[in-house]
């Protein structure tokens, strides 16, 4: 359940909004989240979703979901559907029906015709290479295209023929006539239409010309009555063009949108480039866009992260214009903190060693019940049965324990969680010297009470071999071994392939044992395995009769220790 305190941190955009509302500039705020449907959303988008939808929620305004679908060759319905699902899963509702930039293609075309009639746009025949040559550099002005002074009549004729398919792809463009000597290269007669014969997921084959993002976005904002158009900082230099277009077309809505920029999120030990994420998928480095190691929202969901955890992370990452570099531990910490309160507990043994309880007695040895959560009685309790054979973690036994060891050793005692104190009396090994069994005795006078005359400090988890459910457990770690995998240079100064730094230990699958309840759970059921971490039943592969758990995050950050 969301509340406004989840988005209560002050930042400069909130200050702008509050000033606008107080001054009467706007009676209400209207934001938008405008993803391009050319891939799955990632953690950077989650921050933007929480900002745009969160501001609308805090100020009782509206937020549109609008697909920036002006590049049909890279876009498809799968991405559209996944984006809708991700936004909903994060807990947000968009205003009305989802919108598409392609919904406005007719209006965009009409505005372009109007710009031509006003002498503010022209059809250009320069190739892409020639256009780069004419554009100039950051220190040198560009020069006018030889086609810049075509008559209005000729430009109109050519533009209509572009629309009607009279010219080959890439042979002509429509450009704004602004200033080739501008210090801002984005204002040097930017292209606003190009010829591209590509099937569009929304408009089919109606168009063979498509508008550019910078032209489309600001008009879409204006049509929808957006008040605050929030972009990441790389669009700051595009804001003059955003304003120029709106200043030079008839106002489609009385509310004039303004663009504001904030720093994009950079998550260490990860990448947030859709192109590079797509490369991971297409080259088979991961199992898909929702691989639990991926920083995609669908991947994090499958990993077991919660919407509440991601919203908490977005709040902690903050909104500013300064560099927003966040360590993976901050994300994991937010998820861990949320799961600590919400996830019920079970015991599971991932690296089992057999323990035979030599003095187990049906009439004497008893089981106890245990709460599913120590601080939430409403979650209820379960019976924790004991049997003559149990499993404990192999790591909880040592023949040569270090100083301060508080787990099991030969001749030593330890308490079984929710059960008795046991003592290891014998170690059984195979022919190669590997430990295959421990023979232990129960102190039957320690169920629910302390042993008399001695202290037993250690407590370990365990499961009954007779009652346990066999489960598959997928142990996930960070996908990359370095903080910035796409920013490492070789000796020659060139960037090395980011795939060189994939972590070979980022995923492995084991067979483990858990309390019986683990064998009858629905997909996406989140649990804490006591002393081990947080786990979730896999969204795709888990079945009640064939349980599959993904490790979401450990009980504490162990990466720094590595």
From TrEMBL:
Gene Ontology biological process terms, A to Z: glutaminyl-tRNA aminoacylation; glutamyl-tRNA aminoacylation
Domain Glutamyl/glutaminyl-tRNA synthetase class Ib catalytic, residue spans: 29-339
Compartment(s) of residence: Cytoplasm
Indicate which residues form the motif 'HIGH' region. 35-45
Q: Where is the Glutamyl/glutaminyl-tRNA synthetase class Ib anti-codon binding domain?
A: 343-443
Q: Highest taxon of the source?
A: Bacteria
Any one Gene Ontology molecular-function term assigned to this protein's record: glutamine-tRNA ligase activity
**Catalyzed reactions per annotation:** tRNA(Gln) + L-glutamine + ATP = L-glutaminyl-tRNA(Gln) + AMP + diphosphate
Task: List each copy of the tRNA synthetases class I (E and Q) anti-codon binding domain by range.
Answer: 459-538
Query: Which GO cellular component term is one of those annotated?
Result: cytosol
Positions bound to ATP: 36-38, 42-48, 232, 264-265
| Positions occupied by motif 'KMSKS' region | 271-275
Residues bound to L-glutamine are 68, 213
**Family in the record:** Belongs to the class-I aminoacyl-tRNA synthetase family.
Subunit structure and binding partners: Monomer.
Task: Name the PANTHER family on file.
Answer: GLUTAMATE--TRNA LIGASE (PTHR43097:SF5), GLUTAMINE-TRNA LIGASE (PTHR43097)
Q: What is this protein called?
A: Glutamine--tRNA ligase
State the species of origin: Neisseria dentiae
The UniProt gene name for this protein comes to glnS
């Amino acid at each position: 359940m969301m509340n406004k305190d989840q988005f209560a941190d002050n930042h400069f955009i909130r200050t702008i909004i509050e000033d606008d509302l107080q001054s009467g500039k706007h009676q209400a705020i209207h934001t938008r989240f405008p993803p391009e449907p050319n891939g799955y959303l990632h953690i950077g988008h989650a921050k933007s979703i929480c900002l745009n939808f969160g501001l609308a929620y805090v100020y009782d305004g509206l937020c549109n979901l609008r697909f920036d679908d002006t590049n049909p060759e890279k876009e498809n319905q799968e991405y559209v559907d996944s984006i809708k699902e991700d936004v909903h899963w994060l807990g947000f509702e968009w205003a009305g029906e989802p919108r598409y930039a392609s919904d406005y293609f007719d209006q965009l075309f009409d505005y372009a015709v109007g710009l031509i009639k006003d002498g503010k746009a022209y059809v250009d025949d320069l190739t892409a290479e020639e256009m780069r040559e004419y554009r100039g550099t950051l220190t040198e002005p560009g020069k006018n295209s030889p086609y810049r002074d075509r008559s209005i009549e000729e430009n109109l004729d050519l533009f209509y023929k572009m629309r009607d398919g009279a010219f080959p792809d890439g042979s002509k463009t429509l450009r704004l006539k602004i200033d080739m000597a501008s210090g801002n290269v984005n204002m040097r007669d930017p292209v606003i239409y190009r010829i591209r014969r590509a099937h569009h997921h929304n408009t089919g084959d109606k168009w063979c010309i498509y508008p550019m993002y910078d032209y489309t976005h600001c008009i879409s904002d204006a049509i929808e009555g957006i008040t605050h158009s929030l972009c990441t900082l790389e669009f700051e230099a595009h804001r003059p063009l955003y304003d120029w277009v709106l200043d030079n077309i008839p106002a489609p809505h009385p509310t004039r949108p303004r663009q504001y920029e904030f720093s994009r999120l950079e998550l260490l030990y990860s990448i947030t480039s859709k192109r590079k994420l797509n490369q991971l998928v297409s080259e088979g480095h991961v199992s898909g866009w929702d691989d639990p190691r991926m920083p995609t929202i669908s991947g994090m969901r499958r990993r077991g992260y919660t919407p509440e955890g991601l919203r908490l992370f977005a709040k902690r990452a903050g909104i500013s214009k300064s560099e927003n570099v966040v360590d993976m531990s901050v994300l994991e910490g937010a998820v861990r903190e949320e799961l600590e309160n919400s996830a019920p507990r079970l015991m599971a043994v991932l690296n089992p060693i057999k323990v035979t309880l030599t003095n187990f007695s049906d009439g004497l040895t008893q089981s106890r019940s245990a709460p599913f959560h120590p601080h939430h009685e409403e979650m209820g309790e379960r019976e924790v049965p004991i049997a003559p054979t149990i499993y404990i973690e192999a790591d909880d036994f040592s023949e040569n324990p270090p100083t301060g060891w508080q787990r099991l050793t030969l001749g030593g005692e330890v308490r079984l969680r929710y059960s008795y104190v046991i003592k290891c009396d014998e170690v059984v090994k195979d022919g190669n010297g590997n430990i295959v069994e421990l023979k232990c005795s129960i102190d039957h006078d320690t169920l629910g009470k302390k042993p008399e005359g001695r202290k037993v400090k250690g407590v370990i988890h365990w499961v009954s071999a007779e009652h346990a459910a066999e489960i598959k457990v997928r142990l996930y770690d960070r996908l990359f071994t370095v903080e910035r995998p796409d920013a490492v240079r070789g000796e020659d100064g060139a960037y090395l392939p980011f795939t060189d730094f994939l972590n070979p230990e980022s995923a492995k699958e084991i067979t483990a044992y858990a309390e019986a309840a683990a064998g009858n759970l629905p997909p996406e059921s989140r649990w804490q395995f006591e002393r081990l971490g947080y786990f979730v039943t896999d969204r795709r592969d888990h079945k009640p009769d064939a349980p599959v758990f993904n490790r979401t995050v450990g009980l504490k950050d162990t990466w720094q220790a590595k």
